[in-house]
Design goal:
single chain, alpha+beta, 3-stranded antiparallel β-sheet, 17 strands, 25% helix
C-alpha cells in the first residue's frame, strides 16, 4: 500500500508524477488500483481530471467517485460548530477561513447561538480589529496580499519604479542581442543571435541586412544572425573587451501584449546555408549537397517504430541536446571520405506539431559519400546526442 500526495492534482505531487511517468521509483501499471480519498477543491477540477484520465490511460483502476463513501471531510459541519459555540460561549466572534459566503453563514450561526451582533465581525484581509474596554472596533486597515520577493534586495522591498519597468517588459516584450566575442582579439566566436520575448503582435525575424515583419500569435523565438568578423581597431580601448561599435546589427521592436514561457528557435534559411556553403573553402570539391529537416509529427514513436496501433497522438515535444556530443559527431562526419562541408542546427524547448527539430546540411564529392554521411550524422545525433520527450493529447 502506498499513501501518496496529489489528491488535488498538484503538478509536483507524487501521484501526478506517477500518472505522467515522471516518478523515479514508482510506476503505475495496468491492474493497479488507485483510490483518491478527497473532495475536489473549487478550481482544481481540471487538474484532478487530467490525473485521473492519465491513470486510466495506463490501465489502472481508479476509485474516485464521491458516492463511494471513501472520504470524510476535515471541516466541521453546522451541528459541530454549534456545539463548539455552546461550549466556549465567546463574547466576540470572528469567522476565519473559507470563501466569503462561508464566513457570512458562520457569522449567522454565531448570532443564532447567542453572540451579540455588534460583537461579530467578518474581516477582510488587512482589516485591523481592536479590542478595547468598550468593545470591538474595526476602523482601519493595513496593506495585505502578495509579498514581492527579489533575490537582490529581499522581501517586500521592490519599489514602484522597478515594478513599473517589469510591467512594461511583460506587456511590450523585449529583444536581447547575444554576441560571443573573443577577449583576446575581439573576433566573433560564433554567429550573433537575436532573441525576442513576446506573445502577440509583430514577430521579428532577423536577416543579415534587413528585418522582416510578419503577423503571428503566441510565439517566442530566437534567431541566428550571421555577420562578418570585426577585428579590433587601432582607436579601440585596449582593455574594453565588449566594445562592439563596429558591429552593425539592425534591431527594432513592436508592441507586445505579454511574455510566453517557451524557448524554441527558428530554423535557419536553407538557401542562405547553401549560399554560404558554396562560398566556403573546399566548395570546389563538392558535387552534391543534401539536407535533412526533421519536424514534430503527430504519430507517436511507439506507433511508427514499434507498430503499436493504439498509441496516442502526439501534440508536441520537449527537445534538448548535448552540444559537446553534437560537435563530436560533426567532427566524425567531417572526417568521412569525400565530405567537405557539414553544418547542423538543433532546436530546443517545448515544440508544437510542425515545429522544426533539426536541420543538417552535408556537402561532398559524390552521391554515395554524401548519402552515407547524412545517414551517419542524423543517426548519431538522434541516438546519442538529443533527448526527445513526446507530449500526448
Amino acid at each position: 500500500v502506498i499513501i501518496s500526495t496529489g489528491s488535488q492534482g498538484e503538478a509536483m505531487s507524487a501521484l501526478y508524477r506517477m500518472a505522467f511517468s515522471e516518478h523515479k521509483q514508482i510506476h503505475i501499471d495496468a491492474g493497479d488500483r488507485v483510490i483518491i480519498s478527497a473532495s475536489a477543491i473549487p478550481g482544481n477540477e481540471n487538474t484532478i481530471s487530467r490525473v485521473i484520465d492519465e491513470l486510466f490511460h495506463k490501465g489502472a483502476e481508479v476509485i474516485y467517485d464521491r458516492h463511494t463513501d471513501l472520504h470524510v471531510s476535515g471541516h466541521a459541519c453546522q451541528e459541530e460548530q454549534k456545539m463548539m459555540l455552546a461550549l466556549v460561549r465567546p463574547k466576540y466572534f470572528i469567522p476565519v477561513h473559507g470563501e466569503y459566503r462561508m464566513l457570512v453563514k458562520h457569522a449567522e450561526l454565531g448570532k443564532m447561538m447567542g453572540v451579540a451582533p455588534k460583537n461579530v465581525i467578518i474581516a477582510e484581509n488587512g482589516q485591523v480589529i481592536e479590542f478595547t474596554k468598550k468593545g470591538i472596533l474595526s476602523e482601519s486597515s493595513v496593506t495585505a496580499g502578495a509579498v514581492l520577493v527579489d533575490g537582490s534586495v529581499g522581501m517586500g522591498e521592490v519599489g514602484s519604479v522597478v515594478m513599473h519597468d517589469r510591467h512594461r517588459l511583460a506587456e511590450d516584450g523585449m529583444i536581447v542581442v547575444v554576441i560571443p566575442v573573443s577577449s583576446y582579439d575581439r573576433k566573433l566566436l560564433a554567429d550573433p543571435e537575436i532573441i525576442t520575448r513576446e506573445n502577440h503582435g509583430k514577430l521579428l525575424r532577423a536577416e543579415p541586412h534587413r528585418l522582416e515583419h510578419r503577423e503571428e500569435q503566441g510565439e517566442e523565438q530566437s534567431f541566428e544572425l550571421p555577420l562578418q568578423d570585426h577585428p579590433a581597431q587601432p582607436d579601440d580601448p585596449p582593455d574594453d573587451h565588449r566594445n562592439l561599435k563596429n558591429t552593425q546589427i539592425p534591431v527594432c521592436a513592436g508592441r507586445r501584449e505579454s511574455v510566453k514561457r517557451r524557448e524554441k528557435r527558428m530554423r535557419p534559411s536553407v538557401d542562405q546555408w547553401l549560399a554560404e556553403a558554396k562560398a566556403a573553402p573546399g566548395a570546389e570539391n563538392c558535387g552534391m549537397y543534401l539536407t535533412h529537416c526533421g519536424t514534430v509529427r503527430q504519430s507517436a514513436r511507439a506507433k511508427v517504430r514499434l507498430g503499436e496501433a493504439e498509441a496516442r497522438s502526439v501534440i508536441g515535444m520537449r527537445f534538448s541536446y548535448d552540444a559537446e556530443k553534437v560537435a563530436a559527431a560533426v567532427r566524425e562526419t567531417e572526417a568521412l571520405e569525400g565530405i567537405f562541408h557539414v553544418r547542423v542546427w538543433l532546436n530546443e524547448g517545448e515544440l508544437r506539431l510542425g515545429d522544426d527539430i533539426m536541420l543538417v546540411l552535408i556537402g561532398g564529392d559524390i552521391r554515395p559519400h554524401v548519402v552515407d554521411a547524412l545517414q551517419f550524422l542524423v543517426g548519431r545525433i538522434k541516438s546519442e546526442c538529443v533527448r526527445e520527450e513526446e507530449i500526448f493529447a
